[in-house]
C-alpha cells in the first residue's frame, strides 16, 4: 500500500500560486440549481425509505458536461476550480433534505400543522449553523489530519474532477494535455443522463400512465398466515440499493423479512383467537390485515429497534467523538490568524464573521415565533450543535457520509432535550414543537457539517480556495432550504386524505366556541366540498383516534385529516388510491418526544425492538440498518436488496480484471464508487425521484385524467390489474435491472 502523504508535504493538484477562474457567477448559479434538483430528489427518498445518497459526484459530472456543452456553442469551458465550486454548492441540498425529512414530518405525526415558515426557518438556520461551525475546524480535520481522515466521497469526487480537467487546468497543474480526458468526461455524462432519462420515463409510464403495477405483492395463508412478499419496482430504489452496496442492502431487507414473514404471522397466529382487541390496537387481530398489524404493532417495535441502533452506533463512536472534540478545540486554539494567511489554498472566511454569524443565528432561533423556542432551547442547540458537527465531520472522514450516524445523534439530542424539559415540567403541546425544533436544527447542522467536510476535502485535493467554497456552500444551503420547505408541504398535501368522521369516530364532537383556526379541504376532495370548517387538534384517543379534525359550527367532527406523510388511509372516499410516505425516522422522533413528555407510548413493544437491536449487535450485525428494515415496508427494502445484489455481482466480476488486480480493498471500493454503475444508478435516482415529485404535485390538478387512466388500466391492462399482473410487472423492471448490470460491467484493460 502506498505511503500516506503528510499534510506538510502535500501539494494540491492546482498549486496555490496558480490563478484560474473559480467563484464565477455561472459556476455558483449552476451549483445552486443542481443543489435544488438533487435536494428535491433526496427529500423524496428520505420520506420513502429514510436515507439518501451523496450528490457530489453526480453534480460534478453534470456540471462538467454542461460546461463542455456551453463550450461547443462558443462559450468558455470551465476550469477545475469552477467545477469544484459548482459541486460544492450543489451538494448542500442533499444534506439539508436528509435533516428536514428526518425531523420535520414528526410535527404532523404529533398532530400539528406543517407550517411553511417553521420548515424554512429550521432548514435555513440549521444549514447555515452547520457550515459556520465547521469552518474553524477545517485546518484540523482537513489539513492536519490529511493522511488519517480519508473522506471517501470527497476523495472520489476529486478524482472525477481531475480526470475531466481541461487543458487550461492541466497546464496550471503542470501536466501535459490529456487527449482522452474529454472522451472520458463525455462517456460519464452520457451514462448519468441516460440513467436520468430511463428513470424519468420509466416512472412516468409506470405511475402516471398506469403502464404496470408499481408494487407487486402476494399475501400467504397458513402456515404463514398474514405473511406477505412485495417489491416496489421503482428505478430510484434500485439505484439506491446499488450505491449503498450489498452488505447494507441485505441487512435492511433482512429486517423487512423479519417483520413480514415472522413478526406479522406470529402476531396473527397467537392473536387470531382473542375475543378482545390487544392494545394499542382498537380492533380484533382476527379482523386485521397485514397492513393493520404493521400499523398497530410492528411500527412501535421497529421504532424501538431504530432508537436502540442509533444510540448503539453513537456509543460505539464515543472514542472518536472525544478525539474529535479534543482535536477541534485544540485546532481552534492553535489555528493561524485568518488575516495572516498568505496562501490562496489556506484562506477561510474570517473568524469574526463566523462568530457574528453564529451568534446572529442563535438570536434568531431564540426569538423566532414559529419555532416556539426559549433561551434554554437555543443553548441546547449551541451545545449539541457544536458537539455533533465536530463528531459528524470526524466520522465522515473515517467512514464516509453514508455510514455517518446522524440519526443516532438526533435521537440523543431529542432524548436529552426531552428529559431536561420533563425535569423542568415542560410537557404541554407547545414543548413538542420546541423539542423537535432543537433536534431538527442540530440534525441539519450535523448533516451539513459532514457534507461541508467532504466538499472541503475535495477542494483541498484539487487546490480550491476554502473561503470561496465556504461562500458557495452557504449559498447552496440557503437556496435549497427555501425550496425544500414548499416541496415537503406539497408532497404531504398531495397524499392527504379527508376521512369522513363517521367512518372512524361516529358522534365525535367538541366545543366549537374554543376553536379559532379555520380551514377548508385541499386537493381533489375540495371539488366535492368547498365549505370552511374549524380545526380541532385532538390529542387523546377518547371517542376516536388522535389527530387533526375539521368540525362544523356545532362542534361535530366532519373529517379526520389523514396526512400524506405517515398517514394510515391510502384511499379517498371515491376509491382512488393515494401514495403515502412512511418517513420512518420522523416517526421515531415523534415517538421519542411523545413517549418522554407525555409517557404515551406502548413501551413493551418499544422494548421488544430494543431487544432485537441488542441481539443483532451481540451477533456482530449492524443493528441500525436492520432496524430501519424492520420499520419500513418490505416492498421498500426489497428493491434495495435487488440493487445491492447487482452491485455484488458487478464488483465480483470487475475486481478480477487486470486494472484492479494491484488494488487493495479500500482502493477497489473507491474505484467502485466512481464507476459506471454508480453513475447510472445516480441517474436512476434523480430521474425516478423527480418524476415521483412531479406526479405528486400534479395529482390535485389532473384528477380526472388520473382517474380515467386508472379505470382504463384496471379494466384492460393485464400488466396493471388481473391474475397475472404481479408476474407481468416484473418484465419492465427486469429491463432496467439488466441495463444496470450491463452498463456497470467494465472492459478488461491490460497493462501496457
UniProtKB/TrEMBL annotation:
Principal location class: membrane
InterPro entries per the UniProt record, alphabetical: Oligopep_transpt, OPT, YSL-like
Top-level taxon of origin: Bacteria
Keyword presence, Transmembrane helix: yes
Regions crossing the membrane: 27-47, 53-70, 91-110, 116-135, 248-275, 296-315, 351-368, 375-393, 405-424, 471-489, 603-624, 630-650, 678-703, 723-744
Coiled coil: none
Keywords attached to this entry: Membrane, Transmembrane, Transmembrane helix, Transport
Compartments (UniProt record): Membrane
Membrane topology: Multi-pass membrane protein
NCBIfam families reported in the protein's UniProt record: OPT family oligopeptide transporter, OPT_sfam
PANTHER family: OLIGOPEPTIDE TRANSPORTER YGL114W-RELATED (PTHR31645)
Protein name: Oligopeptide transporter, OPT family
Organism expressing this protein natively: Undibacterium rivi
Amino acid at each position: 500500500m502506498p505511503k500516506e502523504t503528510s499534510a506538510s508535504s502535500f501539494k494540491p493538484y492546482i498549486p496555490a500560486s496558480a490563478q484560474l477562474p473559480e467563484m464565477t457567477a455561472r459556476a455558483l448559479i449552476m451549483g445552486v440549481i443542481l443543489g435544488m434538483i438533487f435536494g428535491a430528489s433526496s427529500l423524496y427518498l428520505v420520506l420513502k425509505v429514510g436515507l439518501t445518497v451523496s450528490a457530489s459526484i453526480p453534480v460534478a459530472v453534470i456540471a462538467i458536461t454542461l460546461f463542455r456543452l456551453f463550450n461547443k456553442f462558443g462559450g468558455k469551458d470551465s476550469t477545475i476550480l469552477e467545477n469544484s465550486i459548482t459541486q460544492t454548492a450543489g451538494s448542500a441540498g442533499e444534506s439539508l433534505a436528509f435533516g428536514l425529512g428526518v425531523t420535520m414530518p414528526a410535527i404532523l405525526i404529533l398532530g400539528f400543522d406543517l407550517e411553511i415558515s417553521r420548515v424554512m426557518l429550521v432548514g435555513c438556520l440549521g444549514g447555515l449553523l452547520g457550515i459556520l461551525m465547521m469552518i474553524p475546524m477545517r485546518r484540523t480535520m482537513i489539513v492536519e489530519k490529511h493522511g488519517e481522515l480519508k473522506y471517501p466521497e470527497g476523495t472520489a469526487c476529486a478524482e472525477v474532477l481531475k480526470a475531466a480537467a481541461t487543458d487550461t487546468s492541466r497546464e496550471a497543474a503542470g501536466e501535459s494535455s490529456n487527449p482522452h480526458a474529454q472522451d472520458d468526461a463525455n462517456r460519464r455524462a452520457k451514462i448519468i443522463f441516460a440513467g436520468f432519462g430511463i428513470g424519468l420515463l420509466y416512472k412516468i409510464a409506470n405511475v402516471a400512465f398506469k403502464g404496470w403495477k408499481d408494487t407487486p405483492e402476494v399475501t400467504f395463508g397458513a402456515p404463514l398466515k398474514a405473511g406477505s412478499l412485495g417489491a416496489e419496482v421503482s428505478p430510484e430504489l434500485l439505484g439506491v440499493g446499488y450505491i449503498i452496496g450489498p452488505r447494507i442492502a441485505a441487512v435492511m431487507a433482512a429486517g423487512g423479512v423479519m417483520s413480514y414473514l415472522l413478526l406479522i404471522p406470529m402476531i396473527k397466529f397467537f392473536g387470531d383467537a382473542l375475543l378482545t382487541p390487544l392494545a394499542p390496537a382498537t380492533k380484533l387481530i382476527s379482523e386485521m390485515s397485514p397492513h393493520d398489524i404493521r400499523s398497530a404493532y410492528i411500527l412501535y417495535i421497529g421504532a424501538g429497534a431504530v432508537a436502540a441502533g442509533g444510540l448503539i452506533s453513537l456509543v460505539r463512536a464515543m472514542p472518536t467523538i472525544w478525539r474529535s472534540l479534543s482535536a477541534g478545540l485544540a485546532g481552534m486554539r492553535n489555528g493561524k490568524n485568518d488575516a495572516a494567511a498568505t496562501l490562496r489554498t489556506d484562506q477561510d472566511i474570517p473568524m469574526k464573521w463566523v462568530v457574528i454569524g453564529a451568534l446572529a443565528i442563535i438570536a434568531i432561533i431564540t426569538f423566532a415565533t414559529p419555532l416556539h423556542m426559549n433561551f434554554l432551547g437555543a443553548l441546547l442547540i449551541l451545545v449539541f450543535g457544536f458537539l455533533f458537527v465536530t463528531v459528524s465531520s470526524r466520522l465522515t472522514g473515517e467512514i464516509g457520509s453514508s455510514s455517518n450516524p446522524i440519526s443516532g445523534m438526533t435521537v440523543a439530542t431529542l432524548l436529552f432535550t426531552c428529559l431536561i424539559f420533563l425535569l423542568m415540567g415542560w410537557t404541554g403541546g407547545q414543548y413538542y414543537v420546541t423539542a423537535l425544533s432543537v433536534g431538527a436544527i442540530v440534525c441539519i447542522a450535523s448533516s451539513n457539517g459532514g457534507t461541508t467536510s467532504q466538499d472541503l476535502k475535495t477542494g483541498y485535493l484539487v487546490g480550491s480556495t476554502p473561503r470561496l467554497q465556504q461562500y458557495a456552500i452557504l449559498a447552496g444551503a440557503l437556496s435549497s432550504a427555501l425550496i425544500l420547505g414548499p416541496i415537503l408541504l406539497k408532497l404531504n398535501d398531495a397524499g392527504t386524505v379527508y376521512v369522513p368522521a363517521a367512518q372512524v369516530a361516529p358522534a365525535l364532537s367538541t366545543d366549537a366556541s374554543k376553536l379559532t383556526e379555520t380551514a377548508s379541504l385541499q386537493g381533489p376532495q375540495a371539488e366535492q366540498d368547498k365549505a370552511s370548517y374549524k380545526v380541532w387538534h385532538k390529542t387523546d384517543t377518547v371517542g376516536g383516534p388522535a389527530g387533526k379534525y375539521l368540525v362544523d359550527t356545532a362542534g361535530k367532527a366532519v373529517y379526520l385529516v389523514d396526512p400524506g406523510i405517515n398517514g394510515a388511509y391510502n384511499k379517498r372516499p371515491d376509491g382512488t388510491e393515494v401514495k403515502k410516505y412512511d418517513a420512518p425516522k420522523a416517526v421515531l422522533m415523534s415517538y421519542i418526544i411523545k413517549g418522554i413528555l407525555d409517557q404515551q407510548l406502548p413501551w413493551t413493544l418499544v422494548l421488544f425492538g430494543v431487544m432485537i437491536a441488542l441481539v443483532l449487535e451481540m451477533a456482530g450485525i449492524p443493528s441500525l440498518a436492520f432496524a430501519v428494515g424492520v420499520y419500513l415496508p418490505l416492498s421498500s427494502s426489497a428493491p434495495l436488496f435487488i440493487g445491492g445484489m447487482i452491485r455484488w455481482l458487478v464488483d465480483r466480476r470487475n475486481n478480477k480484471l487486470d486494472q484492479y488486480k494491484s488494488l487493495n480493498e479500500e482502493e477497489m471500493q473507491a474505484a467502485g464508487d466512481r464507476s459506471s454503475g454508480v453513475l447510472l444508478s445516480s441517474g436512476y435516482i434523480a430521474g425516478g425521484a423527480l418524476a415521483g415529485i412531479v406526479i405528486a404535485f400534479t395529482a390535485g390538478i389532473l384528477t380526472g385524467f388520473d382517474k380515467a387512466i386508472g379505470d382504463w388500466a384496471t379494466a384492460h391492462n393485464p400488466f396493471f390489474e388481473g391474475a397475472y399482473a404481479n408476474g407481468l410487472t416484473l418484465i419492465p423492471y427486469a429491463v432496467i435491472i439488466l441495463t444496470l448490470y450491463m452498463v456497470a460491467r467494465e472492459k478488461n484493460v491490460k497493462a501496457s
